[in-house]
Design brief:
The structure holds two protein chains of two kinds. Chain A is an alpha/beta fold. Chain A has helices at 31-45, 69-73, 85-97, 116-124, 126-129, 159-163, 176-188, 210-213, 240-254, 272-282, 297-309, 331-337, 341-353; strands at 27-30, 49-53, 78-80, 101-105, 139-143, 169-171, 193-197, 205-208, 225-228, 233-237, 259-263, 266-268, 285-288, 318-320. Chain B is globular and about 70 Å long. Chain B starts with 29 loop residues before the first strand and ends in a 5-residue tail after the last helix. The chains are: A alpha/beta, B alpha/beta.
Amino acid sequence: MWGVIRQKTQSIRPAFSAIRHFSSAAKEITVREALNTALDEEMSADPKVFLMGEEVGEYQGAYKISKGLLDKYGPDRVLDTPITEAGFAGIGVGAAYYGLRPVVEFMTFNFSMQAIDHIINSAAKSNYMSAGQISVPIVFRGPNGAAAGVGAQHSQCYASWYASCPGLKVLTPYSSEDARGLLKAAIRDPDPVVFLENELLYGESFPVSAEVLDSSFCLPIGKAKIEREGKDVTITAYSKMVGFALKAAEILAKEGISAEVINLRSIRPLDRSTINTSVRKTNRLVTVEEGFPQHGVGAEICTSVIEESFGYLDAPVERIAGADVPMPYAANLERMAVPQIEDIVRAAKRACHRSVPLVAAA
Amino acid sequence: MSFTATKFAPSPLPLSSTTPRSNDKPLSFSFDHSKANPSSSSFLGSTRKLLRFRAPAKPRSSSPVAAVLLQQTSNLLITKEEGLELYEDMILGRFFEDKCAEMYYRGKMFGFVHLYNGQEAVSTGFIKLLKKEDYVVSTYRDHVHALSKGVSSRAVMSELFGKATGCCRGQGGSMHMFSKEHNMLGGFAFIGEGIPVATGAAFSSKYRREVLNQADADQVTLAFFGDGTCNNGQFYECLNMAALWKLPIVFVVENNLWAIGMSHLRATSDPQIWKKGPAFGMPGVHVDGMDVLKVREVAKEAIGRARRGEGPTLVECETYRFRGHSLADPDELRDPAEKEYYAARDPITALKQYLAENNLASEQELKAIEKKIDEILDDAVEFADNSPLPPRSQLLENVFADPKGFGIGPDGKYRCEDPKFTEGTAQV
């Protein structure tokens, strides 16, 4: 069960590339503020949007994402629910059937397991089963992925789980810009969206342009973002791992390797075009994810590249993922179980130099 | 929205046990309609403005447990030995959690740490009546249940430190205390998750006795969970099956009135949880969870019922946590008057008083117990501190009971046969 709102000591600094389309590093906001303002603006713009979940109201959100919204929109639109994921997720789906736009907060996505029937069977399939008569414009959002020191049940990534289900859109913001633009897109979208945030990023600050801060700002669903351009190796990542990949790219740059970092932003739909275009340029690919390796996001990306750009690959695809074990509690084991920056650096070097003999990875 | 606040108005929460004692202090919560803001919406969350803590004006004389089938026990008195045992267990629970807070702030433990302070009478009152073969299934607030069940302070403290000597070798952590030896079937981190597991443990006892003809399979399972869980479907599903199949289980609700920052009265249409027992055909009991002797009395009967094969019981223990939901909960929503009210009813103080008033223990004897527990905990911390971290190789262990599940390596052999696998240097 949820316990702590805490800032991780390890800081993930964004690296800035020239390709950012805004020039002046104007204002910085945290991911938490980005999510909060996005929710606020969408609720303000559309009275059909409401927020429900555990502790979203009086407690101001377990992670304070909904801070101030109860006071502003009242208890009719910011609903504290009992601890009944299956119940309130289903209620959200039913409300969406009939024209409302619910935003359902899971205190963490681990708890969405109790509601997965409604996410998969009620939300994702209704549009198809009803032959397009009933769409389900709902957002399921909350923190996802490895946290710190909370053991196996509270520390895992559900990106590939939900991304394997037709009918769902799965978004994974990294920066404040992502958080604002993608959450707004998710709320406006006519389909069910699984919106995977990361607890350890909530307190991170990122610079944002005036455009991002404008209430009309929105990002397209299904488009990846090239966070850093490069020519030697492509690194794909999402959520917190984008920060790690950018760090790795900095280290690699010092050693003369120019890495291109792709922030996937959307796991489903997956921006195969951006990934393949990049791989055709760099000829090497490293995929990074926090989740379990088998049947993961990296596996899907790898398949896409094999299918579309096989002839362009100069090295086997390298896949960095969480260890193939439930998350251990002990801090030293936990560190070994999640990807580290040095793992990415090592894999990129392997791809570039083939200096390490090929080991068949799991 | 046309919902009205009256829909959410509960009857006062009763607080009385099957056998009234002279120091009964009944309590009631009520909505204060006079303070309602007429302009505020009446939909769901709006009742927050109506909730006011009210200390009881006068004792209630009528027993609210009409549905209860428990027999009156004739004698409330415990023996000296029993009294000291209860006191020691409660002191262990309290001091252990205080030590956890200290160690957490010193950075020795991490993640989520949910402490049990204030609720000791429930763990002690129930678990100390169990046999070693009986099962306990707990929640994320599980340290003290494990201690009461007999898991050593060293093993629990070490687990919290993330050390190899912990009861789960550092793999489980604060919310996942398991001990097969003590039939502690785990702390479960999700709301409601433990209840079906506990019901399954009870099912296994019945199955062993009736299908496998193991006459001695008379284990009783205790499922501990909180008031928040009683709004979760798994609770109702399992009440039904447990009653349907007459399983040897006691559902112990530790109603501490708050699910993190959600008041029980704001979350539950009918806050009297014990009433849900009779709805499923099992006794429902409400007991003062701040009084270990009352808890013990009810527990004795419920456990006995289960052991005799007469089926499950639902026991609602009204209790209170003296700390926030976890060590990082700012705990801003609970009324100070409410906290004070319960602080004054500290279950340990109450037992101490009872022991003194009935000449069951001297001040020196109790002090000696406290000193002993202090020493046990100092030893546990020292032990945990000096214990080794789990070795790297441990990362790959225990994922499967048969490690061949890790699959076949490039050499065509099972990966677990690769020396690197046990060295912890295999690719994962």
